[in-house]
């Protein structure tokens, strides 16, 4: 199917052809918010170096949004289009589209990445633990482990995990694991990382609902490899 068709037809069918294919009539709705990386090298290549292209997190797009972008571009006769999965993304695009060279935008230096300060106040040896016990009825499931060595050792641990998934995001039913310096904080400078006390050998765990003994066993076998 080509752009020779009129707008109403293009809006429904796009420029794709279903001939000779066995596939859904409409693209499925992808309900996953995050996507698993095959290994830490792939995550680093995608998020830190921008070389490898793959879906990361619903905020940045998914296959259904890709299809919508393509369809809108086709209808508008443009090279590409972009839809947003969050209000903040739309606001950012609006600001960057409005400002010009020499303009100033006021914003705090510590945005998104550093809002995750990896406070482990649920642990008794944390200095904020007494305050947290007074203010909270329970503690969160996000914890950070610092392994011996550096980034390579942290990557080896994450790559050795079998139950815990190497993926970004927080708060799912699955235990998700990521290394901040190559994921949530990949765009920060070494000075900003040092200021935020984010170390290369830090591993972030968003603990899910699996059996605790299975999670512990998975971490034990992964740590045994360093």
Description:
The protein folds into 2 domains: 77 residues, no CATH class; 112 residues, Aspartate Aminotransferase, domain 1. The chain is α+β, with helices and mostly antiparallel strands and 226 residues long. The longest helix has 14 residues. It is globular. The chain contains 8 helices and 4 strands, in the order αααααβαββαβα. The protein has a 4-stranded mixed β-sheet.
**How many structural domains in the coordinates?**
2
Average of per-residue pLDDT values? 84
Based on the structure given, which CATH architecture of the largest domain is correct?
Alpha-Beta Complex
CATH topology of the largest domain: Aspartate Aminotransferase, domain 1
Q: What's the CATH C level of the largest domain?
A: Alpha Beta
Give the CA-CA distance, first to last residue: 55 Å
Strand content: 5-15%
Question: What would you call the structural class?
Answer: alpha+beta
Number of strands: 4
| Uncertain residue segments | 114-118
Rg result: 22 Å
Quickly count the helices: 8
Strand order of the largest sheet: 1-4-3-2
Within CATH, the superfamily of the largest domain carries the name Aspartate Aminotransferase, domain 1
Shape: globular
SSE arrangement, N to C: HHHHHEHEEHEH
Largest sheet: 4 strands, mixed
Topology overview:
Blueprint: H1 7-13, H2 40-48, H3 63-76, H4 87-98, H5 129-135, E1 142-146, H6 151-160, E2 165-166, E3 176-178, H7 190-195, E4 202-206, H8 212-223
Parallel strand pairs: 2-3
Antiparallel strand pairs: 1-4, 3-4
Helix pairs in contact: 6-8
